[in-house]
Specification:
Number of strands: 6
Number of helices: 6
Helix content: 40-55%
Largest sheet: 4 strands, mixed
Radius of gyration: 15 Å
Strand order of the largest sheet: 3-5-6-4
Order of helices and strands: EEHHEHHEHHEE
Strand content: 15-25%
Shape: globular
Length: about 150
């Protein structure tokens, strides 16, 4: 069995989702990789190009109170990923309406389709986008873009 270690300490599922300083990308990457290791998949590397694609879509979804894969400008996940400069063999995107990384992760892990995407061993790169709650009526948005080069 493989475990994740940070600062000399073995991470538990709860600790995997917490990081000092509240950096949402580090928090989400650690949480995703914790689950991937325990599923026998390789660790993902954070990629700035995929971050750009994910952040663009998270902002769009939050601004329009939507939860979908097509952008309001007609863009698809694959077009956003290519436009950000990431040339891929295989790519995917998952979205969640959530106000925290642990909440988004719980939603994805409770959905067989999203869990399978998140744990797919073909992926080796990850992008993370987050748009916080806007006003009282909407939830924040989390977007993960996953890619294989």
């Amino acid at each position: 069995m493989t475990t994740l270690v940070r600062d000399g300490r073995v991470l538990t599922p709860a600790a995997a989702g917490r990081t000092a300083g509240g950096d949402f990308r580090t928090e989400m990457l650690t949480s995703v990789n914790f689950r991937r290791v325990h599923a026998g998949a390789r660790l993902l590397n954070l990629d700035e190009r995929l971050n750009t694609a994910a952040q663009r879509h998270a902002d769009d979804l939050a601004a329009h109170d939507l939860l979908q894969h097509d952008g309001t400008d007609g863009s698809t996940p694959w077009r956003r990923i290519r436009t950000a400069g990431f040339a891929f063999r295989f790519a995917a995107e998952i979205t969640a309406a959530a106000d925290s990384a642990p909440e988004a992760m719980q939603r994805w892990m409770n959905s067989p389709q999203h869990r399978d995407t998140l744990l797919d061993p073909r992926f080796n790169h990850l992008g993370i986008g987050r748009a916080p709650r806007r006003g009282d009526s909407t939830r924040g948005r989390y977007v993960l873009t996953l890619g294989q080069v």
